[in-house]
Specification:
28% helix, Rossmann fold, seven-stranded mixed beta sheet, alpha/beta, 28% strand, six-stranded parallel beta sheet, 326 residues, Quinone Oxidoreductase, Chain A, domain 1
Length: 326
């Protein structure tokens, strides 16, 4: 099969690799669409010690089951494979499983390829009226659905449901969409990039500003740099909640003194539970997350150029989705 392989810092090669072989309980999936995630970019830049070259990246995938009793079933893929036996899995908190694995990270190859294999429990059937490139958004949207859910669960019931999202890329936009689907109607996205801000406003129907114009009870840091943590510390209301989603760096920035004196809740969030993934897929299918027509589609063969364009800041769309068959 053809795959886009991470060969080293800022180097990707499109070439033939061996076809994957499904293990017991797994299904072979013909990948139809796979998104480029911020974590793929971190690996591409050499910033992720968990993803070592050579490796097939990509974990935001949808496709069609090949062979077996479910042959032809259109599915979106939960890339997080867990043990299903530990206390975290038993409690429905599979994202905290100590044995968790995710495709695109050793030892599991990713979905920048024509085929992958996954257990049936990681697959959600996609209705015939939903394009598979839209279904591939279930994974990135589920990450933000999880963050929005945790933030709302932590918010004191007397506080207003208003939110500021820092960052207008795919993470930030998905967080805003999830919040709105959960009846948080006053959501402002802070995005310094003028072209991306215009895209968010004109194409996505969001309120996007270059800098925060107020404070809010909920702040979601969808970037994750020291500077954005510092900003989140300043613009969250006393008694409010910061949900930290981005993994930009691990430097300082959070104002621990203000968090302590103002009883601000800080939540680190990672991936999603299986239920979050299913809930997100359902919200895509029934339209609660909007038309999701803001992706840019490219061929997997042109994936290296897509990474270069993202690195150069030359992509206005929040998400690039690659097709392995064009």
């Amino acid at each position: 099969m053809k795959a886009l392989v991470y060969d080293g810092i800022e180097t990707l090669g499109f070439r033939d690799v061996p076809d994957p072989v499904a293990a017991d309980g797994e299904h072979l999936i013909r990948v139809a669409a796979v998104g480029i995630c911020g974590s793929d970019m971190h690996a591409y830049l050499g910033h992720d010690a968990r993803r070592l070259a050579p490796l097939i990246l990509g974990h935001e995938a949808a496709g069609t089951i090949q062979g077996g009793p479910n042959d032809g079933m259109r599915v979106t893929v939960n890339p997080l494979v867990t043990c299903m036996d530990c206390p975290a899995c038993a409690a429905g908190r599979e994202n905290l499983c100590p044995e968790r694995q995710i495709i695109s990270m050793q030892p599991r190859e990713g979905a920048f390829a024509q085929y992958i294999t996954m257990p049936m429990r990681n697959l959600v059937e996609v209705p015939a009226n939903i394009p598979l490139e839209t279904a591939a958004l279930a994974e990135p949207l589920a990450v933000r659905w999880h963050a929005a859910r945790l933030a709302l669960e932590a918010l004191h019931p007397t506080m207003d449901k208003r939110a500021i999202v820092i960052g207008g890329g795919a993470i930030g936009l998905a967080a805003a969409l999830a919040l709105k689907a959960m009846n948080v109607n006053d959501v402002e996205i802070v995005e310094p990039n003028e072209a991306r801000r215009a895209f968010l406003t004109d194409k996505c129907g969001q309120t996007a500003v270059p800098a925060a114009t107020s404070t809010a009870p909920i702040v979601i840091d969808a970037v994750g740099f020291g500077a954005t943590r510092a900003s989140a510390s300043q613009i969250v209301d006393a008694g409010g909640v910061i949900a930290h989603v981005g993994l930009g760096d691990d430097g300082p920035g959070l104002d621990v003194r203000r968090a302590t004196l103002q009883e601000i809740t800080f939540i680190g969030t990672y991936t999603y539970t299986s239920q979050d993934f299913r809930d997100t897929a359902a919200a895509i299918f029934d339209g609660r997350l909007g038309p999701l027509d803001w992706i840019e589609k490219r061929a997997l063969a042109d994936g290296f150029k897509a990474f270069q364009d993202l690195r150069a800041g030359a992509v206005a769309a929040p998400k690039i989705v690659l097709n392995p068959w064009t």
